[in-house]
Amino acid sequence: MTILFGTAPNNTAGYGQYIDIKSILITNVPGINESDDFTKDSALNTAWWNPGFSYNPGSVILVSTNSAYWVNWTVPDLGFGLETKASLNSGTNVWFSPSYYGSSVGAANTVPTLMGYSLKWTLIPKACLPTVDGTTNGPVSRTAFFRLSNPPPAQ
Question: For the whole model, what pTM was predicted?
Fold first, then answer.
């Protein structure tokens, strides 16, 4: 038996929509109950959950408690890249890519995913937020501004 959560197989009508699932509990079955609290997982357990049933398997994303923001924009976006900055005022703080600040967590954490036909989304981990002084090890700013730029940021 296959149970599908948040999907309708062979139907693209919901493509680009999102659904948040915090936990799943399956009870009253022979053997043991199945339970998964996604807020406590560091990775999607693919032994239990198969994102291959999704119209776009890459759009099945586990959001950890270390994630600060979802940022989205419309496509086409060829040649553009996401930038962030702590303040819109001039000064030493310039526009950088989120992965510049999150070099310790890896740039793969901010790679955008096509969600539907016209939107891209990217998850911004807390470690990828801009710092007050614009350095990778500085104190994290209480504010963050985002924009797309063409060409994309070099760092």
Answer: 0.74
